[in-house]
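Final report, results section. Input specification for complex C-07:
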Amino acid sequence: MAQLKLGMVGGGNDAFIGGVHRIASRIDDRWRLVAGALSSTPEKSKASGAALGLDADRCYADFAEMAAAEAARPDGIDAVAIVTPNHMHFPPAKAFLDRGIHVICDKPLTATMEDAQAMAAAVEASEALFFLTHNYTGYPMVRQAQAMIAAGEIGKLRVVQVEYPQDWLTIAQEDTGLKQAEWRTDPARSGAGGSIGDIGTHAYNLACFVTGLQATELAADLHSFVPGRLLDDNAHIMLRFDGGARGMLWSSQVAPGHENGLKLRVFGETGGLEWCQEDPNYLWHTPFGEPKRLLTRNGAGSGPQAAAMSRIPGGHPEGYLEGFANIYSGAADAIAALRDGKPLPEETALLPGIQAGLDGMAFIAACVQSSAENAGWERL
Amino acid sequence: MAQLKLGMVGGGNDAFIGGVHRIASRIDDRWRLVAGALSSTPEKSKASGAALGLDADRCYADFAEMAAAEAARPDGIDAVAIVTPNHMHFPPAKAFLDRGIHVICDKPLTATMEDAQAMAAAVEASEALFFLTHNYTGYPMVRQAQAMIAAGEIGKLRVVQVEYPQDWLTIAQEDTGLKQAEWRTDPARSGAGGSIGDIGTHAYNLACFVTGLQATELAADLHSFVPGRLLDDNAHIMLRFDGGARGMLWSSQVAPGHENGLKLRVFGETGGLEWCQEDPNYLWHTPFGEPKRLLTRNGAGSGPQAAAMSRIPGGHPEGYLEGFANIYSGAADAIAALRDGKPLPEETALLPGIQAGLDGMAFIAACVQSSAENAGWERL
Amino acid sequence: MAQLKLGMVGGGNDAFIGGVHRIASRIDDRWRLVAGALSSTPEKSKASGAALGLDADRCYADFAEMAAAEAARPDGIDAVAIVTPNHMHFPPAKAFLDRGIHVICDKPLTATMEDAQAMAAAVEASEALFFLTHNYTGYPMVRQAQAMIAAGEIGKLRVVQVEYPQDWLTIAQEDTGLKQAEWRTDPARSGAGGSIGDIGTHAYNLACFVTGLQATELAADLHSFVPGRLLDDNAHIMLRFDGGARGMLWSSQVAPGHENGLKLRVFGETGGLEWCQEDPNYLWHTPFGEPKRLLTRNGAGSGPQAAAMSRIPGGHPEGYLEGFANIYSGAADAIAALRDGKPLPEETALLPGIQAGLDGMAFIAACVQSSAENAGWERL
Amino acid sequence: MAQLKLGMVGGGNDAFIGGVHRIASRIDDRWRLVAGALSSTPEKSKASGAALGLDADRCYADFAEMAAAEAARPDGIDAVAIVTPNHMHFPPAKAFLDRGIHVICDKPLTATMEDAQAMAAAVEASEALFFLTHNYTGYPMVRQAQAMIAAGEIGKLRVVQVEYPQDWLTIAQEDTGLKQAEWRTDPARSGAGGSIGDIGTHAYNLACFVTGLQATELAADLHSFVPGRLLDDNAHIMLRFDGGARGMLWSSQVAPGHENGLKLRVFGETGGLEWCQEDPNYLWHTPFGEPKRLLTRNGAGSGPQAAAMSRIPGGHPEGYLEGFANIYSGAADAIAALRDGKPLPEETALLPGIQAGLDGMAFIAACVQSSAENAGWERL
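Structure output:
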């Protein structure tokens, strides 16, 4: 399969997520990074591009220059990855979408609902595809869980428990010069959500993705425990889903002992499932009245959906980067199909896109609104 | 140490919890069961008593007869264990308390708030002691956690996550003739709480016991998933504690894959703790910024509080019955001290009593009220 | 069921295992401790007996006096528990066996092979029953594993991996005045085996019990890592079983991180089983080609053999003391049947007795001999 | 950093390990695959190369043609990956080494000792570097363990327990047409070792790498459980190390429930370490007398050695492919340094090379010889 050409906005030297996107794009050899506007100043952008081995003429000063130039090249990029802080998702996305260049955007969609709606309009108006890297949906055993529920293996759903605890913001890291902490705790760059935007949206997206349910209303109790912090660092949320299921969502960045503890449990009339991001090659399945079963990625009991997202046999653990790569490779499949005039692959429907982005923004807004009203129910 | 004499009300042949109380009372050789009104009919009571090896003249037709007779005997019982369904806690308790006989009562305190207040009055009026078997507080590593938090080892508390999922009521067991299910799902015998009364009170009690905090308000979303069930089988609850900590409590009896999954996590400014009832010999402790530590009962890192509740070395697991026995042995220590005119042991203050019972009833009432108001905040 | 009367030899104040036997005997209310020769001097014996609430006239100066007196009493003990160091198992056992009093003896059988053979002769000559407390065979999930293998659920056996690591003798505890360490590292009191006698025999017994196999030969590499220690504190052993299965056994008391890590894995042509003593309520079962299943004591997937050894529902953990109690209660069943002229219960065949004791002694002897010959194969 | 150019011998369409090498080479963007002789026939080689996007003129009919052509090109490959069955490691390796092209070779080194010695001679005679993909040494927490032991954190070593159980050959997969099974069970292609060659060498290498010890002698009991299988599918091995440590190694491919269960435990005078390949982001460390600590990759308690091998923060799991990539990136560092006339990086010394290969061959030979002599001790 021929490689697609990738550009990147943001993701310069000291960013975490830019490097993740680059590795993810490489793992299956479906993408080659050829262009970038990688940092906030022209100098840093060019230096970062050179360090990554980009041709000098494709190291751009800013996204606007890049969008114009790449659109004009006969060998211009097929897609752009946008890995800037939240408030800088929409402007570059629009620039590329307007030129028909596909977009792979980090989550949450934007910093404001206004931008989110504008993003949706830009996607609607463009012929290009838009992907949002809710990467946890790319884990093989998450796909396995999704498929099992869709197939009715645990019956009609009743209870959904999802949590995403971390501990790195237990202290005021934002006062220590840590960039990752600075922008995430700054409403101007992050938007109205702190932990709920950064990780709560992942948890919410995962719960909806796996269950196939839509939340209809929520009640949220947001709080900042670290003095002076402007955005929530802990959120307790009750959820009600269409069809009658109920749930809880906990996101926290002040929970010592949890590094990146995204965990989902779903209970239906005939069984239960449990998956933890930190041990992602396992999926617990309990058919009610039978012993718990430990399904393993590409091992006995895991099906074609997980296998399609796997590269190596069971017992050889895959991790975060491979799950992320599944989003990139799925995007490549879709873009290649579109380019070749073929129908989109069936699997494209499982990739997070603009709707997942809007759902996440609605989730953040509802949490903030509910919390402002002392955790009253807010419709989604 | 001389043994104390125990009587029992309820706990006949097919009861679960009666047998537990009897084993718990025996483990440390502090009690001898000598009298009982074990079943709901005189015939069954006598048969049950005979099966347990009680003297025929101490197998009573009912609790009233037993209270009168035992109070009159020079070798009468020191204490009575009450292990009937909730609505039958208060009448026998009062009968024994009024005669100065100590009471060890199963939880929750009563089926109604009215009975609970009458119980409190009876305890107040009596010279006898009253213990409520919130047995999970008797686990050594629960005591370890309590002591660590009291000593400030994880700093000022911020977040309390407690859950108690089970799966046995996933189907309508109450329609299959299972007695345990019948009365627990019957408002007349259980009171207003289903899962919140049966297991939610345990979770709530455990959270308060370990943290030393009082909840000040809660918002509860109760639900019955099994058609026709009159009491909640799933409860999602948000909590606010004095001092500013916030928490979540989930109790469920429709969560396949969870047998008896009581689990508590507490997070403070400088660390976190985690304990699970199904693996009770372990306590996870994370000092923020350091690796997680696995403390083991009577092993390295566990202190005198856990050791005082342990019988055997680390690595030799103790379980539910030994934790329960710690309540019984603690009660024996207190009763013996009282009898001998000595001050109550310091440890007696950690034993669950009438206040824990009232707190549990207030918890149930607040949950029911909040849920009736669509999960509005209810003060405790 | 009427209680049986128990006496005890050894097990005075600062002993570990005496207290375990006493609790184990009480748990199911099948035994009452009424007599003892609990310590090595008459004064200490009487003080220990008084502390345990024994009648003064049944606190004996030594086992010989006790055997004679109890045999002469109309209400004499039904059985005696022998919980002395290994070299003091045979003399009291013989004294009681010769008088027709049943014996429950701690393991290993004796300190010397000579004593072991004399013990076997004494058992043979007596009408009394003899039980050896290889208590780990009393765990419900060990019985479950034994039953599954006997029923062919994992097919013809191929590989048996058993290990029993501890860490308490990592340093020279025997030089610190710790009695438990002193006699266990003293050949005069322990016999020729150090870790292999103290814990290796448990591992070996467990492997044979669960698999139903006999080992036919072994090769052992014993070593003492702590300077000055006279007996092995680490043993690496290869095993060959009748029928062609092969195995490894590792016992160690110098393995930091292992408190009491007895663990057994058995692999057959169609499946595998795994059980760990420190988490005894679980049994992993993998049918080849299917997902691993986590069987729980008294939970889904565990059968009547485990249920018969359990007291409380799944999810309510039982532990070491309950497993030990199963040996005591099984012994009571057998003794009561014999007394009543009934056939021994079927389950009696699963209780460890003199043959298990002789097997353990043969194991120790073969290990020592093999190791002396540089780990050459030694027949069993 | 400029990319290096990689060629590949073997690894065509249905091979497992070829794909792994390709992904591993891509992850850090240090290598670009540009040439290959990927299959056993010219036609398949060319088809496989085309499928991977290689230029047609660099899809070679066989390794000899490739070595000659690439050596002659000004833009010829920097290194070749050899991922053929064992008996086909030496011929291509020699062809490339002789032309000064660096070699990255799969393990074990060769199928025969004769070839191994010839390989060593070829490496010796060449200016090119030789790497052997004992990939498990590339896991960050394996490096962490190695560094801790080297720093004395668990004291002088006493006991080394290593095991590598799998279950995929529980049945005769070699009779079902599965290529992976066919050549691994064929002495002509695999050499004298079955499980010991395929996975036992990994376990042995890992134990030596982490401990820094050399084994001086071993006693091995090899066995084939599956009827008709010519090579061992289970191996029990006792080890003695220089300095006095002792160990056990178990490799098995007939252990249902184990997918790829490589596990290492090392015990020293002051502590213990434990690592499992299936959960590779964790390392257990017990300082004797203190609670167990769970070190996590890039998390609290893990040091610079692990960090240097990591790409993403703790809690975001890395897996098998990233560990494998560390070998490839380390090789790239070394090759680039050599090319640039710089000293080899310090880390190069940790990469497995010809000595590790010879050690593995000596291990296989000693196992086979020992087993032929009924598990007598064989010097290494």
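Residues 320-339 of chain C form the longest helix (20 residues). The longest strand of chain C covers residues 157-165. This concludes the modelling results for the funded period.
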